[in-house]
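Hi L.,

As promised, Aspartate aminotransferase family protein:
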Amino acid sequence: MTDVLARLAALRADDLPVHTGRTLAYVFDSGLPEVDRVAREAVAAFAATNGLDPTAFPSLLQMENDLVAFAAGLLDAPDGVVGSVTSGGTESVLLAVQAARDGTPHVGRPSMVVPDTAHAAFHKAAHYFGVEARVVPVGDDFRADVAGTAAAIDESTVLVVASAPSYAHGVVDPVPELAALAAERGIRCHVDACIGGWVLPYAARLGRSVPSWTFAVDGVTSVSVDLHKYGYAPKGASLLLHRDAALRRAQLFAWADWPGYTMLNSTLQSTRSGGPVAGAWAVVQELGHDGYLELTRKALAATDAVVAAVEAAPALRLVAAPDSTLVAFTTDGTCDPFTVVDEMQARGWHVQPQLSHRGRPASVHLSVSAATLDHAEELRAALDSSVTAAVASGPVAVDPGVAALVAALDPETLTDADFDGLLAAAGMAGDPAAGGFALPERRAAINARLDLASPRLREAVLVAFLDRLARPGS
């Protein structure tokens, strides 16, 4: 057993740190060791339980109902609101789309209207469930275009989507106007608050100006909010709330026409560990409203510090003033975002590159946690020195031959040989016996090449990349 645990520790050696306040993507850190301890013990205590049958493990049902009730209070939900605990924001979004589709069975070829800043999970839902995603470009303020949304709605539309906030830019869509469009036509409006749902209500209590987006807005029929983001719960736990039970009915699945037990599910999963439910419940009970208010104060103060650091750097430009705790910035012609990301990584800070989109430039994305506040001055210094280094090295230049190779590739017919050529051009060709490629520590050049590709080609290349990674021996 000791050997196995030592091997686990060794496997984690190259993982990103999750409790330093320096990882500004993928994880959300409260900076409170006691909260982390309670969460771990709760997950371990319920890891073997199964949420498949709520009568077999009534403790899980009680904890789920408690979490929904707590969230309902945050989200201004009316009496009668119902909800489910899911594995994450993507599952919550998938279920919102599935419920909208199956809740309007008279629509033969359903569609939903989404801003082009809506999370990719909506497009995954469209792909899985056969719902057409009608994409409306956002305005210059990066918020959903109300007039464009109205024009895209027709008799096939079953759902209008808004974000609170959008992931890429951190701004809240005009939810009252979008929800009114949906309500006028008798269709659903889902607010994706997976990022902001556990921050914006406390930001309002702290006196911050917060756009309207909750169930207090007439016409909002469902809201998704992640517990494992700014609820600071262990992965993976999210909530999907519906305004009333009738709206959730189509989400529930039952099947009796086989010789086994009658299957009854409230989410996409059947068997599901009670560990994440218990971990989330324990964290929410441990922190309560006062704890979350303080964590939100810290996260917002850290966000303000990041914004100030960006605005003080001549080579950087804030993409949009954040409504919550997400910050995106781009660069001028003296350097490029991808090199800034590499330089930040070299200084112990993990931030996320975002490729160019619809004529808007590439950017750097930060998901700021409460734990970051204690390191705000270190972050500012790291950003300053990273930008200085990026300016000194200059923007990444893509070899014209490589650019031509990228331009010639067809995402529909990308072959293994094509992918091998891209690996070689990127200097990533490695020992075939060890997986066939070697991922460099600095990835600005790779991101610069991807930035030249169309969205479809980016998808095809990254699917090929994931396919190579996810093989034994790689």
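The chain has a mean pLDDT of 94.

Thanks again for sending the construct details.

K.
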